[in-house]
Amino acid sequence: MLHGYDSFISDFKKLVDARDLSHAYLFFGEEGTGKFLHALALSNYIESGKFEEPDRDLSETLIIDFNKPSNIEQNKETVGIDSVREIEHFLYQTSFTGSYRVAILRDAEMLTDQAQNALLKILEEPPQNGVIIAIAKDLSVFLPTVASRFSKIYFPTLSNDSILDFLSKYGKIGGLDKNKVCQESFGRVGRVIQLFSKDKDREKIKKIVISLCDKKASLTMADDAIEDILKLIDKKLSNLNVFFEELEISLLIDPEKNSFKLLKTSQALEDLATINVNKRLCFKNLFYNLVN
User: Fold this and answer.
1) Would you say residue 272 has pLDDT above 80?
2) Which neighbouring-strand residues pair with 103?
3) Which one of 128, 150, 174, 214 has the minimum C-beta count within 10 Å?
4) Residue 208: which region, alpha, beta or left (left: phi > 0; alpha: psi -120 to 50)?
5) What is the pTM of this model?
6) If we measure between CA atoms, which residue out of 273, 21, 26 comes closest to residue 148?
7) Residue 26 in contact with residue 39, Cβ under 8 Å?
8) For 95-147, what is each residue's pLDDT tens digit?
9) Over 80: is that where the pLDDT of 148 sits?
10) Three-state secondary structure readout of the chain
């Protein structure tokens, strides 16, 4: 559901109508702020004139989604190379409608330096009617030479008033405390939707976090939790973000008491942003600090 970025929608409608889109955009901001959904809506507007989530496959849009395990190459040193080649092949083909062809690159954090250098070649000589939209949480995921080629669009978190407005329009919160929902949303509509969805993976992650934060937690429990979390991340990359969100919420109940654990959590998140990091070792260090 599109909510809270009306100026974004208005500006991009004007750019499309004037055929004045840039060849490359970087949509960045925290998880759940609607970056991917707005990229889809923009592509839909280009094809159908409707700035909304498409209800059908878009013929002029290529979506590279690293949340799907099938899109991760086996060689960790070259993640994204095949995807960049696919983007190049797609964008240089003639548009069926004479309009733009759009390639959406979700989870751009996954691109290795080698893949980014391949992408740079496209950005330096972009096809006339091609548009690349890369989606990431932070600008720093790209090499400076690559980042400089993008027009940057920041998606900020929303105010509590905006979240409350979203809840009044779409939310079915029953007897839940609206203020608590706002607090746990962190200003992200995507997070609100997740809070009310019946996501089995999220429920499993919550149970893991509860077990780790329990006073009776042991190193043996931590070892079991490591394997469970790694399986969930292998299943879906976004589960990594879900884990850290749930852990942060749990630790923030008593931030002074848990200040050291919050620091270790932050450090672990930074480490795990590096694709070649040993995830098992990283989680082992984090989980052992949580149960000690």
Assistant:
1) no
2) 62, 132
3) 174
4) alpha
5) 0.78
6) 26
7) no
8) 877 789 999 999 888 888 899 999 999 999 988 899 999 999 888 889 999 99
9) yes
10) CCCCCHHHHHHHHHHHHCCCCCCEEEEECCCCCCHHHHHHHHHHHHHHCCCCCCCCCCCCEEEEECCCHHHCCCCHHHCCHHHHHHHHHHHCCCCCCCCCEEEEEECHHHCCHHHHHHHHHHHHCCCCCEEEEEEECCHHHCCHHHHCCCEEEECCCCCHHHHHHHHHHHCCCCCCCHHHHHHHHCCCHHHHHHHHCCCHHHHHHHHHHHHHHCCCCCHHHHHHHHHHHHHHHHHCCCHHHHHHHHHHHHHCCCCCCCHHHHHHHHHHHHHHCCCCCCHHHHHHHHHHHHHC
As given in the structure block, the two tokens for residue 265 are: 């959590």
Residue-wise pLDDT for 197-226, tens only, equals: 777 888 899 899 988 888 788 888 889 899
pLDDT tens digits, residue range 18-51? 999 999 999 999 888 999 999 999 999 999 999 9
Kindly give, in sequence order, each residue whose CB lies less than 8 Å from that of residue 131, ignoring residues fewer than 6 positions away: 21, 22, 23, 24, 25, 100, 101, 102, 103
Amino acid at 76: K
Q: What are phi and psi of 63, to 5 degrees?
A: -115, 120
Residue 24: how many other CB atoms lie within 10 Å: 20
Q: How far apart are CA 283 and CA 272, in angstroms?
A: 9
Percent of the chain residues past pLDDT 70, beyond the cut:
91
Amino acid at 113: D
Q: Which of 75, 7, 68, 65 is nearest to 36 (CA)?
A: 65
Of 211, 210, 208, 247, the closest CA to residue 230 belongs to 208
CA 110-112-114 angle, 5° bins: 150
